[in-house]
């Protein structure tokens, strides 16, 4: 992760591409930490900016700059 940016600073047309998701590790502590991270980004109206390099990439695949957009599903 490189930093955070206010959600209004990234134009919506930048989101026309592949979509991947990030999920917490199994276990109570990982889920709590991940939930706190998501809730803080939502309350501050921030997106995280990160450098993404696929693990199973072939030669010639370049790192990408990505925005991590928080989402919290409605309570059931």
Q: What's the story with the biggest beta sheet?
A: 3 strands, antiparallel
**Lateral strand order in the biggest sheet:** 1-2-3
Radius of gyration: 14 Å
Note the beta-strand portion.
15-25%
The secondary structure category is: alpha+beta
What separation lies between the terminal Cα atoms? Answer: 31 Å
What are the low-pLDDT stretches, counting only 5+ consecutive residues below 50?
A: none
- Count of alpha/pi helices: 1
- Mean of residue pLDDT values: 86
Range of helix content: 10-25%
Q: In sequence order, what are the helices and strands, one letter per element?
A: EHEE
Could you give the count of β-strands?
3
The 3D shape can be described as: globular
Verbal overview:
The chain has one helix and three strands. The longest helix has 17 residues, at 28-44. It is globular. Helix content is 22%, strand content 21%. The protein is of the alpha+beta class. It has one helix spanning 28-44, and strands spanning 3-6, 46-52, 64-68. The chain has a three-stranded antiparallel sheet with strand order 1-2-3, with helices on one face.
């Amino acid at each position: 992760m490189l930093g955070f940016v206010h959600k209004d600073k990234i134009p919506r047309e930048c989101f026309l591409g592949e979509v991947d998701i990030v999920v917490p590790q199994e276990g109570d502590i990982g889920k709590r930490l991940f939930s706190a991270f998501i809730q803080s980004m939502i309350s501050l109206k921030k997106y995280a900016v990160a450098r993404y390099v696929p693990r199973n990439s072939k030669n010639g695949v370049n790192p990408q700059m990505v925005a991590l957009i928080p989402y919290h599903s409605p309570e059931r």
